[in-house]
Design a protein that fits this description.
The structure is a single chain. By secondary structure, the chain is mainly beta. It contains 2 helices and 16 strands. The chain has helices at about 5-15, 25-30, and strands at about 35, 45-50, 50-60, 65-70, 75-85, 85-95, 95-105, 110-115, 120-130, 135-140, 145-150, 155-165, 165-175, 180-185, 190, 195-200. The N and C termini lie far apart (about 75 Å). It has a 16-stranded antiparallel beta sheet that branches. β13 (about 165-175) and β14 form a beta hairpin.
């Protein structure tokens, strides 16, 4: 892509208000974006640089998936939203992958909000499972990895280290009844070096 094409794409893209993506199609119609239909049934409406998708556009796939957002060099690049039957991703993209800050919402109730690197949850993020468990902390390669807090639906709270999606390293598990396990965890379970004690809450009588 030439420098002139890059400048033209940026000039047009920045005029779009990303807080109103529901008005995306109206915006494209004002740009006189022409539809392009591919052999497999995929349809693209948006800006082009030669035969490459470049700038703002909408791409609709035969299976019903839809992407609305920015393109560069024929790939999702910049800001955009991807819809499928199972989930929606809204955020930043790079070379066709979720990259940067984004929010992933699933139809079964699961939710992730945080950092991505080339399609994988990596960095810091918040995740809520459909069963009500909630994790907030560090991620690597789509798994809890590093330091974080995992709150279970039953009231248990674990604060500490994680590795490859499991509790590992130093951590503290607090249960609703006040019992606490603190020490080293491995493969999700406390080891023999763990210290157990009970937190006694002070009560105030009126």
């Amino acid at each position: 892509m030439s420098e002139n094409q890059k400048k033209a794409s940026k000039t047009k893209s920045k005029d779009f208000d990303w807080t109103r993506l529901n008005e995306f199609e109206d915006f494209l119609s004002k740009l006189n974006a022409r539809p392009v239909e591919y052999i497999d049934g995929t349809v693209y409406r948006g800006q082009l640089a030669g035969e490459l998708k470049e700038g703002l556009g909408i791409i609709e796939y035969p299976n019903g998936d839809v992407y609305k957002g920015q393109f560069a060099d024929d790939e999702f690049e910049g800001k955009g939203i991807y819809f499928s039957k199972e989930m929606k991703y809204e955020g930043h993209w790079k070379q066709g992958y979720c990259h940067g800050r984004g929010t992933e919402t699933w139809t079964d109730g699961a939710l992730f909000r945080g950092d991505f690197i080339l399609g994988e949850k990596t960095g810091k993020g918040f995740y809520q499972w459909r069963n009500g468990n909630v994790y907030e902390g560090e991620w690597k390669n789509d798994k809890m990895h590093g330091q974080g807090v995992l709150r279970y639906k039953n009231g248990d709270v674990y604060e500490g280290g994680f590795r490859d999606g499991k509790r590992e390293g130093h951590g503290k598990l607090t249960r609703p009844d006040g019992n606490v396990v603190e020490g080293e965890f491995k493969q999700g379970s406390e080891t023999d070096v763990g210290k157990r004690y009970r937190v006694v809450l002070d009560t105030v009588k009126e």
